[in-house]
TrEMBL record, chain A:
<dbReference type="Pfam" id="PF17806">
    <property type="entry name" value="SO_alpha_A3"/>
</dbReference>
<dbReference type="InterPro" id="IPR006277">
    <property type="entry name" value="Sarcosine_oxidase_asu"/>
</dbReference>
<comment type="similarity">
    <text>Belongs to the GcvT family.</text>
</comment>
<feature type="domain" description="GCVT N-terminal">
    <location>
        <begin position="593"/>
        <end position="862"/>
    </location>
</feature>
<dbReference type="InterPro" id="IPR006222">
    <property type="entry name" value="GCVT_N"/>
</dbReference>
<dbReference type="GO" id="GO:0008115">
    <property type="term" value="F:sarcosine oxidase activity"/>
</dbReference>
<dbReference type="InterPro" id="IPR042204">
    <property type="entry name" value="2Fe-2S-bd_N"/>
</dbReference>
<dbReference type="InterPro" id="IPR041854">
    <property type="entry name" value="BFD-like_2Fe2S-bd_dom_sf"/>
</dbReference>
<dbReference type="InterPro" id="IPR027266">
    <property type="entry name" value="TrmE/GcvT-like"/>
</dbReference>
UniProtKB/TrEMBL annotation, chain B:
<dbReference type="Pfam" id="PF04267">
    <property type="entry name" value="SoxD"/>
</dbReference>
<protein>
    <submittedName>
        <fullName>Sarcosine oxidase subunit delta</fullName>
    </submittedName>
</protein>
<dbReference type="InterPro" id="IPR038561">
    <property type="entry name" value="SoxD_sf"/>
</dbReference>
<dbReference type="GO" id="GO:0046653">
    <property type="term" value="P:tetrahydrofolate metabolic process"/>
</dbReference>
<dbReference type="GO" id="GO:0008115">
    <property type="term" value="F:sarcosine oxidase activity"/>
</dbReference>
<dbReference type="InterPro" id="IPR006279">
    <property type="entry name" value="SoxD"/>
</dbReference>
C-alpha cells in the first residue's frame, strides 16, 4: 500500500503499467517492485525448483525473487530484477517460471515432491534406465526448473560499448563515495563516480539519518550538485561496475533511463571499460537473511529493504509488520515503520541482552521459527524461553546482519578476511592493485564512519597522485555502534531457505556435508548454492556458515567460494555491442566494387575484401559457363581483373636491398631498377610464409606485393624482422594497399588495350617481360608492371585509388571492344592452375620451398629468414609430399580439392595416405579437369596412375600424375 | 590489462599482439648448429613469475615492444622499444 508521506516519488507524474496483463498505476521515481508493493501485489514470481510463490525480497540488484520479463516479442528481456527496473509509462512486465499462471502454477506439485528433489537429486534419481535421461528426464527437469525464456527472435535493440579514463574511479555514491568524490574533485583530479542506482545517495535515500543537520538524501543531492558544477567529475548513475581487471581496468554496465533508451537509435545499455589510475570502492553492504522454516513466504523480506520502501518510495508491503533481527540495525526498521504510521506487531531480537525504548511488543532472546500462510505471510511462530508465540503479521522484516560488498576486491584472486566483531568478511588491503575500500564495504557501517572513511581514502589517493587535498570539513552524522550476535539458521524442522533464487535450503547444505562435499567449492556445486544469476549475494556467507557448523570447522577455515565477475548479469548484447554483422567482420571494397556489382558479378569474400567471382553475360545460366568464357577470353583476346586487394608495401632506404635479401629466400639486391622479380618468403621455422613480386622502382625504392590473405601477417613480420633482428638497417616501409588501385590486363591483346590509354605507348623492347616503371595514364601518374598470373602476355597497371573506378570502366570497355572483358576470381583461379602457379591453397603453412619445387630459390650466397631451419632433416627429400599436377583418367572426370591420394591397389585409409589435392578447376583450354596437389615423392612419379578418394563428398576416381605446369610450360606466351 | 607503450603511453591490451618470450631477439648465427636453432625457434620456458616478452602494437604505432611482466601478479614493470633493446640501449 502507498503511505501518506512524501518519499522520493513524483506524485504529479502518474504512470500506467501492466504486470501479467493486469493494469496498475505508479509514479515517476518508482521501481517496478515499489509500484507492485503499492498495488498490494504480493506474489511476483515462482521459485526455481519448487515453484513456491515468492514476493519482493530486497530493494536492489541482489534481488533473488522478483525476476520478471520486460517488454514483448523480440524486444522482451527475461530475468530482469523488478527492484532495479525503473517504472515508465506503458511498461509491460510478465512473471516467470509458472504455468498456466502465477496464482495457479501446476508445477507447484514439485513442492510436494521436495523430499526427492534435494541437493544432487539429479545425480541420484532418474538414473535408470540410462537411455531415459536424454529423452525424458533431462527435458522434463529443464522444463520444470528455470527462469525466464528468450523470445528466440533477433533483438533489434541497440547496445553500445565505450571506453573511459580517469584519475580516480569511485564505485558507489553513498556517503563514503560522495565524500571521496568531493575530496578528489576538489583536488583537481579527473573523477568518475559510478553508482548502480538512478540517483546518488546510496543508503541515505533509504534511511532517515541526518547529515549536517538535514535529511541525508538532501545532503547527498547538495554534494551531487557541487560535483556536477566542478566540471572534472563525471557522475555515472545507473552504472554498475561489474568487474576489476588487470592494470586498473574495470568493466561497467550502464542502463540508460527508459525515456532516453526509447529515443530512435538510442542504446538500451552501454558496456564501459574504465581505465583508472586509482579506485575507491564504496560499494556499501548487503544485508543477509536468517534461515528459518518457510522463510521464503511472500511478505518475508529484508529489513533494510523494507526501510527503503517505506522511506524512499512511501510504500509498505504490509499493514501489520513484524521485525526479526540479531543486531541493532534491525531496530531502526521498527522505528521507521512507527514514524511512517505502520503498525508494528512485534520486534524480535535474537540477542538475550537486547533492549528497546520503542513502543512495540518486544521479544529479546527469541527466534522466529516458522512462517505461515501459503499464498503469502499470515502469521509467524516465535520461540521464546516460555514457549511458542504465534503472531499475526502480513510482513516480516528480517536482518541477519550486513555483509560488506567486497566482491570487486576478490576479482583478481584476492581472498577476504573474517572479522569476528562484525561476523562478516572484510576486504583485504591491496587485493586489487590501486584499489582501496571505504565505508560499509570495508566494514565501517555508521554514517559518520562512512563519511570519514571516504574522505580518508580520497586523501590517500590524492597524495599518491601528487595532488594537494583541500580542506574539507567532515559533516556531522550518527555514529551508532553496530552490535551483532551471529545467527545463521534457526534450529528446527522443515525447510529453511539459504539461497532463494536457486532453492537451496539448510538441509541441502547439511546433506552435502554429510555426503563429504565438505569443501565450500564442492558444496556450492553439489547444492547449486550461489550459482543463480544473483551469484549468492544473499546466501553465500550464510551457506558457508552452515557448512562450517556442519563440518565442525570455523568460518575462516571454511573460506569463501571465488567471487568472479560480473557483479550483476551483463547482457551479451552489451559486451558484444558493435560486433555484429559488418562490425564483426569489416568489409573492404575495391574501387571497382560498385561497377562489378552493377555488372551482375556475385561478390565473394577474400579475407575482409570482396571480389567478383565472375561477370555473367546474357544467355549464361551457370557460373561455369561464365568462367569458361572468361578463361577463353584471356587466352584468346584480353581480360581485365581488379588485383588491388593484393598487399602492396612500399620499401625505401639505403638498406632496402639488403633488407629484402634477408626477408626473401632469393636475391633482390641484384635486381635492376625497372625490373620485377618473384620472391619467396619463409617463416623462421623453414616453412613458406608468402610469395609475390617485388618491383625495383629506384636504387633504394622497392614495391613489394603480398598475397591478399597474408598482407597483414607479412607487414607484422617485416616490422618484427626490422625492429627486432636488424634495427641497424636503414630502411622504412609502409602499406600502400589502399592508396593504389591496380588492374591486371592479360591476354594477347593486352598491350593494344594499354596503348589506348597510356600517354606514351609501350613496345616489347622498351617494356619486356618483368619490366616495371612509371607511366602516364591519360595524364595521371601511374605505374606499370609487366607481370603475369595467367601465363599470358600481361600487365598490371596501377593508379592512385581515386582514379580506380574510372580506369576500371575504361579498361573493361576497351577490352570488350577487342572481344575481351572483365574476368573474376573463378577464371583467375583456372588460369593460374593451368599454369601451375601456387596460392595459399598450396602454401598453407605446412609446405616448404622444397615441397613446391622452389628449393633452388633459397640462395646459397646469403642468410635469410628460415634458411637454417629449412635445411633440417625431414623438410626435404623423397618422404616429402611434393607439388604435382593431376588429370582425371577414370570414369569420373571430376577432381575435388581436399580429396586424398592413394596407390592404385591400396585401401583408402589413413595409413596408406599418399597425399592430397589442394586446387582444382575445369580447364576450358585443355578440355578437362586439372588438379594441383601434394604427393609423396611426387616429382619422381610423373606418369603414374593414382587413386583419388574424397571421403567427405563420396567421390573417387583415378588420375595421372603430371607436371604441375599444364599449359605453355616454356612460358613463351608471357614473353611474347 | 594495459601496456605502457613508450611511444603512445598506456594503452589497452586489445591494441597489442603477443609473440612470446623476448629470446626471439637473439637470432643465432646461420652456422650455430641444430640445437641453437631449435632452442631459438621452439624451446621456451614457462616461468611462474617475472618474464620478458615481445608485444606488437599493431593497432597503435606499429612498434615491437619488450615487456617485463609477472605471470603470477600480471604486473607490468617495464616496456621498451625492441629496437632500443636490440641496439643495446636498455
Amino acid at each position: 500500500m502507498r503511505l501518506d508521506k512524501p518519499g522520493q516519488i513524483d506524485r504529479s507524474q502518474a504512470l500506467r503499467f501492466t504486470f501479467d496483463g493486469r493494469e496498475y498505476g505508479g509514479f515517476q521515481g518508482d521501481t517496478l517492485a515499489s509500484a507492485l508493493i503499492a498495488n498490494d501485489v504480493r506474489v511476483v514470481g515462482r521459485s526455481f525448483k519448487y515453484h513456491r510463490p515468492r514476493g519482493v525480497f530486497s530493494a536492489g540488484s541482489e534481488e533473488p525473487n522478483a525476476l520478471v520479463t520486460i517488454g514483448q516479442g523480440a524486444a522482451s528481456e527475461p530475468n530482469l530484477r523488478a527492484t532495479t527496473t525503473e517504472l515508465c509509462e506503458g511498461l509491460v512486465a510478465q512473471s516467470q517460471n509458472r504455468w498456466p499462471s502465477l496464482e495457479y502454477d501446476l508445477l507447484a506439485l514439485n513442492d510436494l515432491f521436495a523430499p526427492f528433489l534435494g541437493a544432487g537429486f539429479y545425480y541420484k534419481t532418474f538414473m535408470w534406465p540410462a537411455k531415459f535421461w536424454e529423452r525424458l528426464y533431462e527435458p522434463m527437469i529443464r522444463r520444470a526448473a528455470g527462469l525466464g525464456a528468450l523470445s528466440g527472435a533477433p533483438n533489434a535493440d541497440h547496445y553500445e560499448k565505450a571506453y573511459a579514463h580517469c584519475d580516480v574511479l569511485v564505485i558507489g555514491a553513498g556517503p563514503a563515495g560522495l565524500m571521496a568524490a568531493l575530496a578528489a574533485g576538489r583536488a583537481g583530479l579527473d573523477v568518475i563516480l559510478a553508482d548502480e542506482d538512478v540517483r546518488t545517495g546510496g543508503r541515505l535515500n533509504a534511511e532517515t539519518v541526518e547529515v549536517d543537520g538535514r535529511p541525508g538524501a538532501d545532503w547527498a543531492q547538495a554534494v551531487t550538485d557541487d560535483l556536477y558544477a566542478m566540471g572534472n567529475v563525471r557522475i555515472m548513475t545507473r552504472t554498475t561496475v561489474t568487474g576489476a581487471y588487470d592494470g586498473g581496468t574495470y568493466g561497467a554496465l550502464e542502463r540508460l533511463s527508459p525515456d532516453v533508451a526509447a529515443r530512435t537509435g538510442a542504446p538500451r545499455e552501454c558496456f564501459w571499460r574504465i581505465a583508472a589510475r586509482r579506485t575507491i570502492l564504496a560499494a556499501g553492504a548487503l544485508e543477509r537473511p536468517v534461515a528459518f522454516q518457510n522463510n521464503d513466504r511472500p511478505g518475508v523480506m529484508m529489513a533494510g529493504a523494507l526501510r527503503a520502501y517505506v522511506n524512499r518510495w512511501a510504500v509498505s508491503p504490509g499493514k501489520t509488520v513484524t521485525v526479526f533481527g540479531n543486531n541493532d540495525d534491525a531496530h531502526r526498521t521498527a522505528a521507521d515503520l512507527l514514524a511512517a504510521g505502520v503498525h508494528v506487531a512485534a520486534l524480535i531480537d535474537a540477542r538475550p541482552e537486547a533492549s528497546t525504548d520503542l513502543p512495540v511488543r518486544f521479544y529479546a532472546g527469541a527466534q522466529v521459527t516458522n512462517a505461515h500462510g501459503r499464498g503469502g505471510l499470515e502469521a509467524i511462530s516465535i520461540a521464546t524461553l516460555s514457549g511458542i508465540d504465534k503472531v499475526q503479521t502480513d510482513c516480516l522484516a528480517m536482518s541477519g546482519g550486513w555483509n560488506p560488498t567486497l566482491h570487486l576486491t576478490c576479482h583478481m584472486n584476492g581472498r577476504p578476511d573474517w572479522s569476528p566483531a562484525l561476523a562478516a568478511f572484510v576486504p583485504r588491503d591491496g587485493a586489487v592493485p590501486g584499489l582501496v575500500a571505504a565505508g560499509a564495504c570495508r566494514g565501517d557501517f555508521s554514517t559518520h564512519a562512512c563519511l570519514s572513511g571516504g574522505l580518508e581514502a580520497a586523501r590517500a589517493v590524492i597524495r599518491e597522485l601528487g595532488k594537494r587535498a583541500r580542506k574539507i570539513d567532515l559533516p556531522q552524522a550518527e555514529d551508532a555502534p553496530y552490535r551483532i550476535s551471529p545467527l545463521w539458521a534457526v534450529p528446527g524442522k522443515g525447510r529453511a531457505w539459504l539461497d532463494f533464487q536457486n532453492d537451496v535450503t539448510v538441509k541441502d547444505v547439511k546433506l552435502a556435508a554429510t555426503e563429504n562435499y565438505s569443501s565450500v567449492e564442492h558444496m556450492k556445486r553439489y547444492t547449486t548454492q550461489g550459482m543463480a544469476p544473483d551469484q549468492g549475494k544473499n546466501s553465500n556467507v550464510n551457506a558457508l556458515a552452515v557448512l562450517a557448523d556442519a563440518t565442525g570447522r570455523g568460518i575462516p577455515e571454511t573460506g569463501t567460494t571465488t567471487y568472479r565477475p560480473p557483479f550483476v548479469p551483463v547482457p551479451i548484447a552489451a559486451m558484444g555491442a558493435g560486433a555484429q554483422g559488418a562490425g564483426f567482420a569489416p568489409q573492404r571494397f575495391t574501387t571497382s566494387h560498385q561497377v562489378s556489382v552493377d555488372m551482375g558479378a556475385p561478390m565473394i569474400e577474400a579475407g575482409l575484401w570482396y571480389r567478383p567471382s565472375y561477370f555473367p553475360r546474357e544467355g549464361e545460366k551457370t557460373w561455369r559457363q561464365s568462367c569458361d568464357r572468361e578463361v577463353g577470353m584471356v587466352r584468346r583476346a584480353v581480360g581485365v581483373c581488379d588485383v588491388s586487394t593484393l598487399g602492396k608495401i612500399d620499401v625505401q632506404g639505403p638498406d632496402a636491398p639488403a633488407f629484402l635479401d634477408f626477408l626473401y629466400t632469393n636475391m633482390f639486391s641484384s635486381l635492376k631498377v625497372g625490373r620485377t622479380r618473384y620472391g619467396l618468403m619463409l617463416r623462421e621455422d623453414g616453412h613458406v610464409m608468402d610469395d609475390g613480386t617485388t618491383a625495383r622502382l629506384g636504387e633504394h625504392h622497392f614495391l613489394m606485393t603480398t598475397t591478399t590473405a597474408a598482407a597483414g601477417q607479412v607487414m607484422k613480420h617485416m616490422e618484427f624482422v626490422h625492429q627486432c633482428l636488424v634495427p641497424q638497417m636503414d630502411v622504412s616501409f609502409i602499406s600502400v594497399t589502399e592508396q593504389w588501385a591496380q588492374f591486371a590486363v592479360a591476354g594477347p591483346k593486352s598491350r593494344e588495350v594499354l596503348n589506348g590509354i597510356l600517354d606514351d605507348p609501350i613496345d616489347d623492347d622498351g617494356f619486356p617481360f618483368m619490366a616495371c616503371g612509371p607511366v602516364s595514364v591519360m595524364g595521371v601518374a601511374g605505374r606499370l608492371f609487366r607481370i603475369s598470373f595467367s601465363g599470358e602476355h600481361a600487365y598490371e597497371v596501377a593508379v592512385p585509388a581515386r582514379y580506380g573506378e574510372s580506369l576500371f570502366r575504361l579498361l573493361v570497355q576497351r577490352a570488350e571492344e577487342l572481344d575481351g572483358g572483365a574476368y573474376g576470381m573463378e577464371a583467375l583461379n583456372v588460369l593460374r592452375i593451368e599454369k601451375g602457379f601456387i596460392t595459399h591453397s598450396e602454401i598453407h603453412g605446412r609446405t616448404t620451398a622444397f615441397d613446391i619445387g622452389m628449393e633452388r630459390m633459397v640462395s646459397a650466397k646469403k642468410d635469410c629468414i628460415g634458411k637454417a631451419m629449412a635445411a633440417r632433416p625431414g623438410l626435404s627429400g623423397p618422404e616429402r609430399e611434393q607439388l604435382v599436377g593431376l588429370v582425371p583418367t577414370g570414369a569420373v572426370k571430376k577432381l575435388t580439392a581436399g580429396a586424398h591420394l592413394f596407390d592404385a591397389g591400396a585401401a583408402p585409409v589413413r595409413e596408406n595416405d599418399q597425399g592430397y589435392i589442394t586446387s582444382v578447376g575445369f580447364s576450358p583450354t585443355l578440355g578437362h579437369f586439372l588438379g594441383l596437389g601434394f604427393l609423396k615423392d611426387g616429382r619422381a612419379r610423373h606418369g603414374e596412375e593414382i587413386r583419388m578418394v574424397d571421403h567427405v563428398r563420396q567421390i573417387e576416381t583415378t588420375c595421372q600424375v603430371v607436371d604441375p605446369v599444364f599449359f605453355d610450360p616454356e612460358g613463351g606466351r608471357a614473353r611474347g | 590489462m594495459r601496456i605502457p607503450c613508450p611511444l603512445c603511453g598506456s594503452r589497452d591490451i586489445r591494441e597489442f599482439d603477443y609473440m612470446g618470450h623476448a629470446q626471439a631477439l637473439d637470432r643465432p648465427e646461420p652456422e650455430a648448429g641444430a640445437q641453437a636453432w631449435d632452442d631459438y625457434v621452439h624451446n621456451r620456458d614457462n616461468p611462474a613469475g617475472p618474464t620478458r616478452d615481445l608485444w606488437f602494437h599493431g593497432l597503435g604505432c606499429g612498434a615491437w615492444l619488450v615487456v617485463d611482466r609477472d605471470t603470477v601478479s600480471h604486473e607490468i614493470t617495464a616496456a621498451a622499444l625492441a629496437r632500443d633493446v636490440k641496439g643495446g640501449a636498455a
